[in-house]
Structure formats: structure tokens, C-alpha cells
Design goal:
With 126 residues, the protein is α/β, with parallel strands linked by helices. The protein has helices at 10-15, 42-48, 67-83, 105-113, and strands spanning 2-4, 54-59, 90-95. The longest helix has 17 residues, at 67-83.
């Protein structure tokens, strides 16, 4: 699984009354959030699909979240992976960029976890 953007401390992202990046200050017709925190946080979604590997991209200039919100969520994922002795199954691609798909470590991640052995050379693709 690859998560590009929006990976953060979901509870704070949805409910923070002081930070202008909170969803409380931004209506979003494309994203339905009603009662979501009684269901799943980002960590719980990752745990639900475990033991599948996960790669998370985070742009340092992402204006939709904060570095602190992201760091809290990432620390939870690291703790979870350590408890399951699976730290090799999580990848964080922090890059200096905005809220976008970075696509650098994600391709290496896909090569490792999805492609069959020996198929990682791009020149062999049609």
C-alpha cells in the first residue's frame, strides 16, 4: 500500500480548533468524514491490512497537514511495526516538496514488494 499525502494524526487533523489546517476550517465535498474517528485512524487502517508492506510519502512543504501531525502518526506506525517485528515492511519517503505524489521511493517499494523477481528493469517494459 502506498499513502501519498494526508497521512497524519487524523484525530487532530479533523478536530483541532486552533490550527487553520484542520478540516474544521475547510469544507470538502469530496471527502466524507462523519463519525470516522469512531471507526479508524490512519494507524488502524494500516494495522487492518497488516502484514502487507506500506510506503508513506510526506512533502515537507505540504500545506494540508503539519510536520508534527505527520511525525505523531509515523511514530505510531514505527511502534506498531517494532511490536510485530516488521520494521522492514514500512518505508517513509520524506521529501522537500508540496502536497503531491513524489514517486521516488515508491517505485523502489513497488519493485521490492509487488514485482516478481527479476522484473525490476524499466527497459524491459513495453
Amino acid at each position: 500500500m502506498i499513502i501519498s499525502g494526508y497521512f497524519n494524526d487524523w484525530r487532530t487533523k479533523i478536530t483541532d480548533e486552533a490550527n487553520r489546517r484542520s478540516f474544521l476550517f475547510h469544507s470538502n465535498d469530496d471527502m466524507y468524514n462523519w463519525n470516522v474517528l469512531n471507526r479508524f485512524t490512519h494507524l488502524e487502517l494500516i494495522a487492518a491490512m497488516w502484514p502487507r508492506a506500506v510506503c508513506i510519502e510526506f512533502g515537507e512543504q505540504d500545506i494540508t497537514t503539519t510536520a508534527e501531525w505527520h511525525a505523531r502518526a509515523w511514530a505510531q506506525v514505527e511502534d506498531f511495526a517494532r511490536a510485530w517485528d516488521a520494521s522492514d515492511r514500512i518505508v517513509l519517503d520524506r521529501f522537500n516538496g508540496p502536497h503531491e505524489i513524489h514517486g521516488v521511493l515508491t517505485f523502489q517499494f513497488l519493485d521490492k514488494w509487488v514485482r516478481p523477481a527479476g522484473a525490476s528493469e524499466r527497459s524491459s517494459l513495453p
